[in-house]
Design a protein that fits this description.
With 353 residues, this protein is α/β, with parallel strands linked by helices. It has two domains: 160 residues, 3-Layer(aba) Sandwich (Rossmann fold), CATH 3.40.50; 161 residues, Rossmann fold. The chain is built from 13 helices and 13 strands. A seven-stranded parallel sheet has the order 3-2-1-4-5-6-7. β6, α6 and β7 form a beta-alpha-beta unit. α2 runs parallel beside α3. The relative contact order is 0.11.
Amino acid sequence: MIKRICFFSTCFAIHKQVRMNYAEKYLPKKIQLFLLTPPKYNKYKLKRTEIIEVAGNKINFILKLRKFCKENNIDLLVNLGTVNETFGMVFATSGLKTEYIINFMGNIWDAPQKKLSEKIFLFIKKTFLTIPFIFAKRIIQPSSDICNKTKKHFFFIKNKIKQSPLIIDEKLFFPKNEIKVRKKLKLPIKKDIVLSIGRIFYLKGSDILLELIKKNPEKLFVLIGEVMDSNYERQKLANLLIVSPVKVEKLVDYYNSADLFIFPSRVEAYGLVHREAMLCETPALVSDIPALRLTKYAFKAKLTMGDMQKKINKFFLMSKEERKKLGEVSRKYIIETNSYDILKNDHKNLLLN
């Protein structure tokens, strides 16, 4: 019987905070919960989880993680998603009664590699993943098509590999009045607005976005995220508004202010932002890649400016009634696939059974 679960992460992301919040809700109260994290990444606000800060480099972190599991009789060790964390889990639990479950949030099967060194490094990583995967109690991935690829690669342990979508809160992401939020955000009332959220760099399709912005001067493109593409620094485009990352409450306003959400990413593990937009009844256009292509009711386009433009044109040719109906079915679909009520038992069983 599992009495103590230790989660850990060597970095922080908002979705990890959210996942820990949900774990506190669906896991029985009789189970003790712990979270180990480096001090600089301790941004977690948890109610029943004991948070332990571990200073030092990653080697020291894994050593402390092993010591903690041993001294506290941890029954189950669970990482929060980075693929590199899986290697440390083998050492942290070796010779102990502690089992471990891998949250495999990355997509190493479709990651673009331009250089030979990148291809070699990725090949080595794929090969050596066999070790932590073999000894894991379970491997969990959120995307069904990426999960199927993982099962094909690790066919000899495919029964350990499970798929379960991430939980997204439909009570947090919900539709609002477009005119009101545009006034609140000081955005033009009558202009077509295209929204994109996430780091602005090559893997997220920043080059394609820039071409689309230049191609559509009559539309306002709002990009929320850290600019990591130097090409944007030299641009002075009247139809481009770059906004620094904002809190969730304001993010919901931006989702609701847009006519269309665009997500031209080159590689994804699952993809949250387009689903959040759809919960706000804002139709989405995503790249036709694993982890995104199976999203129902979202427009899909090839990773080219031309095909993205065709889909943008197709959307803006729709009537207001058609757009409204698309937004409504989009929200209903995401609730059916990602709500807490739908997924809580699945998430609980994957950890405890």
